[in-house]
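Box 3.1 A note on notation
Throughout this textbook, protein chains are presented in two layers. The first layer is the amino acid sequence; the second is a token string describing backbone geometry. Keep the layers aligned when reading.
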Amino acid sequence: MEQKEWFASWFDTPYYHLLYKNRSEDEAKAFIERLVDFLRLQPQTSVLDLACGKGRHARTLHALGLQVLGTDLSSQSINFAQNSASEGLRFQVHDMRETLPNERFGAVFNLFTSFGYFDETSDNQRVIDAIAEMLLPNGILVIDFLNAQRVRDTLVASEVVQRGTITFEIQREISHGKVVKQIGFTDQGQRFQYQEQVQLLGLDDFKELLQEQFDVRYTFGDYALNAYEYSRSPRLILIASKK
């Protein structure tokens, strides 16, 4: 039986959401509001939240007057997100490497380091190609990614995170151009082990991926949309327009 890719397994477990349950909803909401205002998207613009998780960004986009489709590979996340579906806010299971038939968007949002998961770097280009095909002429792509250089400089090799009765033991290393996180824990006497890995893509890597189909218009370094600084910014946020 073919083994699932790591993200198809880990993201579809309740433990993933338990570990990261303390992510700031207020910060995410403020970021989306700031982005939409900056982009001056017209009301009712059709947008895609690509790799939407449980839909927190999609819900804010919809509340701001946009027509939103949220997609994610995790059926568990989409099942949860469906609880908030309404007119103009849809969710479906989807692999970001594929195009969505009969769907076109004025903007695509790929947020919170939801890129660079793959073993094959060629899959990154498949994602960009699929996005370009789904965007309308002059459509906007927003990618919110980690700042690779800052990750290299500040990597915490190990830590323990307590969530209720579960103790997550986390080990991190940089290997073959990726930051690799090993996550181990025991629940009800059963031992679990999962892995996360994200390619350490920098600004030049993204520019190369985008160059054929997009123009990079802006780069920001945090959720307040401050200027991107190579080694200091916590994030790398790119705004590109389809050629």
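The mean pLDDT is 95. The radius of gyration is 18 Å.
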